[in-house]
Prior knowledge:
The protein is an alpha+beta fold. It contains 8 helices and 5 strands; from the N terminus they run ααββαβββααααα.
Amino acid sequence: MDFATSLRVLTMLTDTLSTPEGMAASLDRITEMTGTLMETQQTVILLRDEDRRRLLVRTCVGVENEQVQTGQPLGVDMKLQSILWRILRTRQIGSLDARVAGIGFPILATPLRVKGEVIGLLLTGKANSGKFGFDEVSRKLFEVIASFASLVIENAKVYDCLQQDFRHRAHELVAADSLESGAMDATEHLMVESLKNPNRVVRQLAVSFYRELVQAGFGPDHIATAAAEILGCIASQLDDAPAGSREAG
C-alpha cells in the first residue's frame, strides 16, 4: 500500500469515527467507506437477530438479489446462512461454499462486535479490478475497517440514546411549562424556559448526559474526558471571541 493510499485510508477512517451520527446514518457510512477502501462493488451489513436466530440485512450495495433486501431477513440458501451465522473471525467464502445469484464470489466476511459480543457481519466482494480473491493486505485492511466500524456503531448507539433522552427531557420541560403558560407553542415554551432559567435546563441535560454515558458502559475516565472536551470547547470559544466581548463578559 503506497503513501497516498495509506493517507486516504486514515483520512476516511478518522472522518467516519469522528462524525457523530445516529445508527442508520452510521451504518450507511460504514458501507460506503468499506466499498471505497476495499475497492469493491458489493458491501452488505448483516445484524444478528438472536431471538429468531436469523440475519437481518441492514445495508446492501451492489447486490441484485430479491433474497438480499435492506430491512428484510437474509433469504439466501440455508447453507450460506449457516456459514455466515457461525463466523467468528474473518473468512473468505468462495463460490464452492454457496452459489447465490447476484453475489460476486469470493466474498470477505468479518464479525462486527460491540463490547466483545458479535452483533453482526460486514461483508464485501466483487473487486473493481476483477481480481479473484483477497490478498493478506486486503484482509488486514478489512479487519481494521471492521474494528473502526464497531467503534462507530458503539458511538451511534450512545448518540441515539442521548438524542432520545434530550427529546424526552424537552417534552418534560414543555409539559411543565404548558401548565403555567396555557396555549403557547411547544417549541416556544422550551425557548422561553431556557431564557427564564437556563441553569435548570443545563443541569437537567448534564444529568441526562451523565446517566446515558454510564448506561452505555462508559467509565469515569471516559466521562471525565467528555467533560474536559466541553471545557476545551468553552476555552476555545473564549479565545476566539473579540477582546471587547470578553471584557464585557
